[in-house]
Amino acid sequence: MRRWLTLALLGFALAALFLKSDAVKAAPQTQAALVKPVDAAPTPNSLVGSETCALCHADLSKKFDSNPHSALALMHGGKGVTCESCHGPGQAHVESGGDKTKIFDFLTATPKVVDAKCLSCHLGTHANFDRSAHGLAGVGCTNCHSNHNAKTDLHLLKIAEPKLCYTCHTDVKASFSQPFHHKVNEGVLACSDCHNPHGTLQDKLLRTSADQNAVCTKCHAEALGPFVYEHPPLKTEGCTSCHFPHGSPNPRLLTRNNVNSLCLQCHTASMNFSAPGTPSFHNQANQYQSCTTCHTQIHGSNANVDFFK
Ligand code: HEC
Ligand code: HEC
Ligand code: HEC
Ligand code: HEC
Ligand code: HEC
Ligand code: HEC
Ligand code: HEC
Ligand code: HEC
Ligand code: HEC
Ligand code: HEC
Fold it and tell me: Contact at 8 Å (CB) between 206 and 195?
């Protein structure tokens, strides 16, 4: 009984709608001008409003009230984003009783076309997307975001980080399972603390710190200094000349399993450790002692040219 009533009401509403759209056709200069965007070319397809979409897409429309595109947008600009801001004018689709080919369908559109739609509003904050490794590889907005079926509360992500990223970057997962690793799987950091998936001006989609330094110094400011006596590779080759950024089998995320072999990567050639007059502790053949037991301030020092305490 209720079902009949609902159908009857729906029929009534649609009938009213069709009457209304006929009226629009009859007087295109007046009513259509009110609902069309100013720069739209004359077309038989015009806007019908979100209430109309809700007649047939009820569940999806109800959920949309809490979508950041309604809620957040209202808060920010005072203007909510409506169904047709993304899907385009819906009149032809409605009058055909739901012909999929008569409305913009994100599910079948190519990534490039989808991205252009989204970027028509989001270009301001994501201006580098087309040039990014993701943009160039054909990874599009809807590979990571879902407007209607997001599984997270944050940023309309399809699934939360880091799982989202691991779905494609399976090899990276292994490095975060190393004995020493940045606690991404534990939720202390996110991939996007260091990378901007929408692109940056750096290689590897890397972010920078607020003062435009390497991303690492956003959280480890003390490692960068400034120091009176700097250890040059910090600036010339960067943190990753000695540390793996994701994870490492070695303590302190070092790239070598013992500190000495790390140091000797650069210091053998320039220092003659066995030359007469060299302190014996520098002779690796005589004595094996971790370089950083003496050169403790390895990132740089304000007190000592040789990085002692
Ligand atoms: C008269 C009922 C009706 C109205 C009103 C209506 N739709 Fe639809 N819509 C449908 C039906 C039915 C389908 C499914 C067509 C199919 O599966 O072939 C559909 C499909 C779609 C699709 C494609 C879905 C897919 O699975 O690919 C989109 C997008 C869509 N509608 C958006 C809208 C928007 C936006 C509005 C408002 C402007 C709207 N619809 C109004 C009936 C309607
Ligand atoms: C008509 C303009 C418009 C279009 C088109 C549009 N957006 Fe938005 N989007 C907004 C506005 C306005 C907000 C509200 C919050 C804000 O100002 O960031 C928003 C919010 C978002 C947010 C949430 C931001 C947060 O902090 O949680 C995401 C994610 C997003 N949009 C992704 C997309 C994607 C993906 C597309 C394409 C499928 C898209 N948008 C298309 C205008 C638009
Ligand atoms: C590879 C996955 C991925 C792709 C592709 C992607 N995003 Fe995102 N997006 C994210 C993640 C992760 C976040 C949350 C972290 C952050 O802000 O970077 C996010 C956040 C956002 C936000 C909210 C925060 C902000 O920076 O404004 C908006 C809006 C957004 N994305 C829009 C888009 C648009 C538009 C596209 C396509 C041009 C897109 N995204 C492509 C993963 C992606
Ligand atoms: C911010 C842009 C945006 C807005 C606003 C928007 N959609 Fe969508 N719509 C999408 C995207 C992107 C998809 C592809 C699936 C997804 O990401 O969830 C989609 C998919 C759909 C589908 C296909 C079925 C499904 O569940 O995926 C329908 C139907 C639909 N939208 C109707 C609507 C209606 C009705 C409204 C207004 C209440 C609306 N859309 C508002 C971007 C948007
Ligand atoms: C839909 C698959 C997909 C998802 C999801 C995805 N990526 Fe990617 N990513 C790619 C592809 C494809 C490339 C380009 C080819 C490559 O370099 O591996 C890429 C490139 C990258 C690069 C640059 C690699 C380089 O060598 O320049 C980084 C960094 C990256 N992605 C991080 C992320 C992060 C962080 C996330 C999660 C927020 C993520 N990706 C989600 C597919 C994806
Ligand atoms: C602590 C900062 C940090 C975090 C967190 C981080 N990355 Fe990275 N990532 C980097 C740096 C730095 C590089 C560049 C390494 C280089 O150039 O030698 C990099 C490189 C990459 C690359 C390029 C290929 C490679 O392995 O060198 C991909 C892909 C990538 N990261 C994906 C991810 C994903 C996915 C996550 C989350 C699961 C993540 N990253 C978390 C800092 C980070
Ligand atoms: C978003 C903040 C953040 C960023 C960016 C970041 N780290 Fe970390 N880092 C942490 C946290 C949190 C820890 C864990 C500290 C702990 O476990 O006590 C950590 C731990 C470390 C450790 C191990 C310290 C120890 O005592 O064992 C090293 C080495 C390190 N980070 C280097 C880097 C490098 C190199 C980069 C850039 C590629 C970087 N970090 C970027 C937050 C960050
Ligand atoms: C020349 C090699 C080298 C470079 C370059 C380097 N580090 Fe280190 N770092 C080390 C060594 C060696 C240790 C371990 C010191 C020890 O054994 O006590 C270390 C330790 C750390 C620690 C652990 C806490 C601490 O201070 O002992 C953090 C965090 C860290 N480095 C961050 C960074 C960051 C951020 C950068 C880039 C700005 C960087 N490192 C560049 C060699 C380097
Ligand atoms: C990536 C190359 C590189 C690595 C790795 C490296 N250094 Fe250096 N180090 C340099 C350069 C370049 C200088 C500048 C002076 C020079 O040319 O010898 C320097 C300078 C020094 C100085 C100061 C010399 C002086 O009196 O001017 C000390 C002490 C030092 N390093 C110790 C270490 C120790 C200990 C390690 C291992 C934890 C290490 N370095 C790892 C490149 C490196
Ligand atoms: C027992 C403490 C100790 C250990 C261990 C040690 N050093 Fe030194 N290092 C010193 C002292 C003391 C000096 C200053 C010597 C001088 O000024 O004549 C020095 C000087 C240096 C210098 C500057 C040399 C120059 O010619 O100006 C470098 C580079 C250096 N050490 C690298 C290393 C490396 C690499 C290791 C590990 C293989 C190491 N040190 C282990 C105590 C130590």
Answer: yes
Instruction: Using the atom order of ligand 7, give the atom closest to the CA of residue 189.
Output: 1
* One pLDDT digit (tens) per residue for the chain, 309 residues: 344 434 444 444 444 444 444 333 333 333 333 333 444 444 568 999 999 999 999 999 999 988 999 887 777 666 778 999 999 999 999 999 999 999 999 999 999 999 999 999 999 889 999 999 999 999 999 999 999 999 888 999 999 999 999 999 999 999 999 999 999 999 999 999 999 999 998 999 999 988 778 899 999 999 988 999 999 999 889 999 999 999 999 999 999 998 988 998 888 744 555 566 556 667 665 556 788 988 999 999 999 898 988
CA–CA distance from 164 to each of 58, 100, 150, 203 (Å)? 29, 29, 12, 21
Q: 83: which 2 tokens?
A: 């169904």
123 alpha carbon to ligand 1 midpoint, in Å? Answer: 27
Ligand 6 atom 26: the closest Cα is on which residue? 172
The preferred substitution site among 87, 99, 114, 141 for testing ligand 4, maximizing ligand atoms within 8 Å of CB, is 87
240 lines ligand 6 (CB under 6 A): yes
Distance 225 CA to ligand 9 centre (A): 16
User: How many alpha carbons fall within 13 Å on the CB side of residue 33?
Assistant: 4
Rounded CA-CA distance 121/201 in Å is: 21
The ligand 10 atom at the shortest distance from the C-alpha of residue 271 is 26
